[in-house]
Specification:
Length: about 290
């Protein structure tokens, strides 16, 4: 199990039990590691995503799917305060992590991003050696223990060790796209987050590299909680335990807002969706 010993704040956190309400009304029985309660995200005066409530279950893969522009990445970034640096971006409602609101004023966003890591669409290794890419977060977080051991452990966990163990001092930029993405996953897991957010992690990869990342996601879920945004419904069906389907609704002023339509166990959402809009989307009738 990933480490759970770093406080997000300088003050003790308040233990509030997360609720488990969902758009579809299905409520998983175990307490979620994260809970979104009526989350809205604004860019300036534009409300990009409206009133989203859903749980993120521990050691499970949760997929977010939906047509382009429905706010999947916006919601994903709200889960570890990655929208904070965007001028005018604001999050309403609550994003609870172990019952603590990540947007409470005493919460340190740096600690949030250490506990809730992120892997991006395009592999983005630093222009440094393979070793230094993985060691980077360990060094800046002053993680104790032998650096070599931590780096090997992270690369092994990311299913990359065997391919790179003889060239650790070579540039990360010389790796293939799929290897670079696994290196980015190793860099993320090296600092032992609890949750890993993945924003279309395979969209820049070929089918073989994609299959490796999908296998890896499934394996990593035994130790980490994973949330993935994907355009690929088959991928969501293959890798996730829970799926959230979003769409964009147009209001009476003709403004589009992202909405969560349905959250459910993946098997159910794809075989027996509760909402007609989900059914239309998964059967290719829109989007
Ligand atoms: N930095 C930003 N500033 C202003 N508006 C933004 C910003 N990022 C996203 N948006 C808007 O918010 C809405 C949701 O965008 P978002 O990228 O979250 O959707 P998405 O579902 O992830 O889309 P896609 O599948 O195409 O990546 C869109 O209308 C988009 O234009």
């Amino acid at each position: 199990m990933a480490s759970n010993d770093t406080e997000l704040t300088t003050r003790p956190s308040v233990a509030v039990q997360a609720a488990g309400s969902t758009a579809s009304g299905s409520v998983p029985s175990t307490a979620p590691v994260m809970q979104l309660n009526d989350v809205s995200v604004f860019y300036g005066s534009y409300e990009a995503v409206r009133g989203t409530s859903m749980p993120i279950q521990q050691n499970q893969v949760t997929a977010m799917i939906g047509p382009s522009g429905c706010g999947k990445s916006t919601v994903l970034r709200a889960l570890n305060r990655m929208n904070d640096p965007i001028p005018g971006a604001r999050v309403g409602g609550e994003v609870l992590f172990h019952g603590q609101n990540l947007y409470a004023k005493e919460v340190d966003p740096i600690q949030v991003r250490r506990r809730i890591g992120m892997v991006f669409q395009k592999p983005n290794p630093f222009p440094k050696s393979i070793f230094d890419n993985v060691a980077y977060g360990l060094r800046i977080n002053d993680i104790k223990g032998r650096l070599d051991d931590h780096v090997e452990e992270a690369l092994t966990r990311a299913a990359l060790w065997d391919e790179v163990k003889d060239k650790l001092r070579k540039s990360a930029l010389a790796l293939s796209g799929g290897q670079q993405q696994r290196l980015c996953i190793a860099r993320t897991i090296a600092v032992k987050p609890e949750v890993i957010l993945m924003d279309e992690p395979c969209s820049a990869l070929d089918p073989i590299a994609t299959a490796k990342i999908e296998d890896l996601m499934f394996e990593l879920a035994s130790d980490y909680t994973i949330v993935i945004v994907t355009h690929n419904m088959q991928q969501a069906a293959r890798v996730s335990h829970y799926t959230a389907f979003f769409t964009a609704e147009v209001d009476d002023k003709q403004v589009r807002h992202g909405r969560l339509v349905e959250f459910s166990q993946t098997g159910k959402l794809f075989t027996n969706p509760a909402d007609k809009r989900t059914e239309d989307y998964i059967t290719g009738r829109f989007g």
